[in-house]
Design goal:
Oligomer: single chain
Strand content: 25-35%
Strand order of the largest sheet: 11-10-9-12-13-15-14
Mean pLDDT: 89
CATH superfamily of the largest domain: Vaccinia Virus protein VP39
Radius of gyration: 23 Å
Number of strands: 15
Distance between the termini: 66 Å
Shape: elongated
Low-confidence stretches: none
CATH class of the largest domain: Alpha Beta
CATH architecture of the largest domain: 3-Layer(aba) Sandwich
Structural class: alpha/beta
């Protein structure tokens, strides 16, 4: 049995308390905005090439998982001594019931219908499907079998969903597609399932490349998976890049060059406020705000003639 010890600290104490709690015997520590779902809630975003976001919020709620038999006041006193902090004036102790954690984790990932033609589904929701066999249509939708893993892209994040919606609405079959920053391969696999003639998936992360290959095999689609050091593919009819603002800024010349004459570029991973600046980095592409979802924008446009 486990218990959860919950208390609030100021932002500058988050790291010290988290490290001290783990050293004092906590199994894990979670930090959350203590003002979440109120007018004082503060979003935190960070990406490569930009200053690191704060370690916590102005008021951060720490939740430490400890053994149910633990002497909590003694553990907190020990953590306070380790971190050179005063013990919290008060804390909440919650019982964490035993449960099937595998089942609990899987229950968080339900099938996700996207647009008119796609359905992202974990393997445990598709009874009878064998890896390497084309997944069946489910309620008239192409099923993309994808289990959560180390690489980004399960279909639940707004940026991934925006790209999937664009592909669903615009691919008609026969296109050459490049997915730059492919992560799990979800966009590349979706393009293949929607009838693309060829799909090249590129990423800098070896784990992402392995994940994309594995997921392609599960879904019985053919992807040309490449690392950045490999020869670049020929220019494509559709290039999609769901990354982050800073990489999209730096990669603008490369991504623009990968768009064939008359081809289209789709960019995501952008906060709404970042979209105008990124669009300006691509003068050769007539990028426009295509759609926004939960504070994230997808840019799309055709190569200028």
């Amino acid at each position: 049995m486990w218990s959860e010890v919950v208390f609030v600290v100021e932002r500058d104490a988050v790291d010290a308390w988290s490290d001290a709690l783990l050293e004092a015997g906590a199994a894990s520590v979670q930090a959350e905005d203590a003002d979440a779902d109120s007018g004082d809630e503060t979003p935190l975003f960070g990406e490569p090439g930009e200053p690191a976001p704060a370690s916590g919020w102005q008021r951060t709620r720490l939740s430490a998982l400890v053994a149910a038999s633990a002497d909590v006041p003694a553990l907190l006193a020990r953590a306070a001594a380790i971190g050179a902090r005063q013990a919290p004036a008060g804390f909440e102790l919650r019982e964490v019931p035993d449960q099937d954690w595998v089942q609990a984790t899987q229950s968080q990932f339900a099938p996700i219908p996207v647009g008119r033609r796609l359905r992202i589904t974990p393997s445990w929701h598709l009874a009878g499907h064998e890896s390497g066999a084309p997944p069946p249509l489910v309620e008239g939708r192409h099923a993309i079998v994808l289990d959560p893993g180390l690489a980004f892209g399960t279909g639940s994040h707004p940026t991934t969903r925006l790209c999937l919606e664009w592909l669903d609405e615009h691919l008609r079959g026969g296109e050459r597609v490049i997915d730059y920053g492919c992560g799990s391969g979800i966009l590349a696999i979706a393009a293949a399932r929607l009838g693309a003639a060829s799909v090249c998936a590129i990423d800098i992360d070896p784990q992402a490349l392995a994940s994309a290959r594995r997921n392609a095999a599960v879904n019985a689609v053919s992807l040309d998976v490449r690392a950045p050091g490999d020869p670049l593919p020929d220019a494509a009819d559709v290039v999609v890049a769901n990354i982050l603002a800073n990489p999209l800024r730096l990669l603008a010349p490369l991504l623009s060059a990968l768009v064939a004459p008359g081809g289209r570029l789709v960019l995501a991973g952008l906060l709404d406020r970042q979209a105008p600046e990124i669009a300006a980095c691509y003068p050769e592409i007539a990028l426009r705000d295509w759609r926004s979802l939960e504070g994230w924008t997808c840019l799309a446009g055709a190569r200028r003639s």
